[in-house]
Write a structure and sequence with these properties.
Helix content: 10-25%
Distance between the termini: 104 Å
Structural class: alpha+beta
Largest sheet: 8 strands, mixed
Number of helices: 8
Strand content: 25-35%
Radius of gyration: 29 Å
Oligomer: single chain
């Protein structure tokens, strides 16, 4: 074989070998690994050193007395940026303004509610991304109240390749439910910063602190005194399930003071209105009531109703009337107050419309009482 032919032959072999190696290396995606960083300070000192990023979280930590926990405890912190707190406080104060109430800030808002919110972000134990790679994620517990959160490692798509991008943590408020459809989820923007006593993952700056509960918690109003229970009111409804009031999802579970149970009747609104009647042994003055939404299917929630009072169940007076009502979340209690100084022996709630699920109606809790 001539020299030129040998060179050409070796060149072709070389090109084929390079192609094979390239094919083996390129499997259609690039497996991004989380970048780990170690700092020789505790979690608290690290967060405090990052001026302009975590100032709001440090302010809250200091106010709640959590500084020792962030300095000495074995923890995982899902760090919340100033932007997340800013969004939450702005939403809250916009709502308060519409209600004619003054603004609040992180320094003076309700301590208990703020403490409850922060337990969503400071978890017991150290969890790097590798330890969150289970298919269903990992259930974490807050340092103070043991509140359950779920953290799951995911790989996002990039450059047209599914699961070819960077790894992020999907971080979820489980809302005391085992079903992920009931959870509220955010994601991390950075992960795996190791301090001397814990791991820090930073929540995306678009996250609103409190997982949708921030505004609700700081505009909370206490429910009325429950006269149905206090004065042993007799509770009846116009459409009951086959098992009776205490059968599966019967009417009793609307007044059992447990929001995790509920009344559900799939034919409640076949004959409108569906009514709920409370008869007291003696006449009572009622001027408020509350509904709590159930665990699923928002279309079953009540949308329009009226409340009536009577002494003889013949002559009825309308005390309050509502329409266009919506429950924005599961297990959400809404309180309604009205002016009334007259005592009635009978109070009848007439529900005339649900939020779109045929004739179905569900209510987790119903309270009738005095504000």
């Amino acid at each position: 074989m001539k020299i030129s032919g040998i060179k050409k032959y070796l060149f072709l072999i070389g090109m084929a070998t390079i192609s094979l190696i390239a094919c083996r290396k390129d499997s259609g995606y690039y497996d991004h690994k989380p970048i780990s960083q170690r700092v020789q300070v505790n979690v608290y000192d690290y967060l405090k050193s990052k001026k302009g990023i975590y100032d709001s979280m440090i302010l809250v930590v200091d106010r709640l007395g959590l500084k020792p926990t962030l300095m000495d405890s074995n923890i995982t912190v899902f760090a919340v940026t100033n932007s997340s707190f800013r969004l939450a406080v702005a939403n809250l104060n916009n709502t308060r303004k519409l209600a004619g109430r003054g603004p609040v800030n992180l320094s003076n808002m309700d301590y208990i509610q703020l403490d409850t919110i922060m337990t969503q972000y400071i978890m017991r134990g150290q969890y790097s991304t590798e330890e969150l790679a289970n298919q269903d994620g990992v259930v974490l517990r807050g340092v103070r109240f043991g509140y359950k959160m779920n953290a799951k490692l995911n790989t996002v798509a990039t450059s047209g390749f599914q699961h070819g991008g960077p790894k992020v943590i999907s971080y979820s408020d489980m809302k005391w439910s085992q079903f992920s459809r009931n959870w509220t989820t955010t994601t991390t923007s950075s992960t795996n910063l190791f301090a001397v006593n814990g791991v820090i993952h930073t929540i995306d700056q678009d996250h609103v602190t409190g997982f949708r509960d921030f505004v609700i918690r700081f505009t909370i109003t206490f429910p009325p005194i429950n006269y149905i229970k206090l004065y042993r009111g007799i509770f009846t409804v116009s459409a009951e399930g086959g098992g009776g009031p205490r059968g599966q999802e019967g009417s009793y579970f609307m007044i059992d003071e447990n929001r995790l149970t509920k009344f559900l009747n799939r034919n409640a609104l076949v004959t409108k209105p569906f009514w709920m009647n409370v008869e007291f042994p003696e006449s009572q003055v009622c001027n408020s009531y509350a509904f709590t939404s159930a665990n699923d299917v928002p279309g079953r929630n009540p949308k329009a109703w009226n409340l009536q009072g009577s002494d003889d169940m013949i002559n009825w007076e309308i005390l309050d009337e509502r329409s266009g009502q919506n429950f924005e979340d599961f297990f959400l209690q809404k309180i309604y107050r009205f002016e009334n100084t007259k005592a009635y022996k009978h109070y009848r709630m007439n529900i005339t419309q649900n939020n779109g699920s045929g004739n179905e109606l569900q209510i987790a809790e119903y309270i009738l009482g005095f504000k």
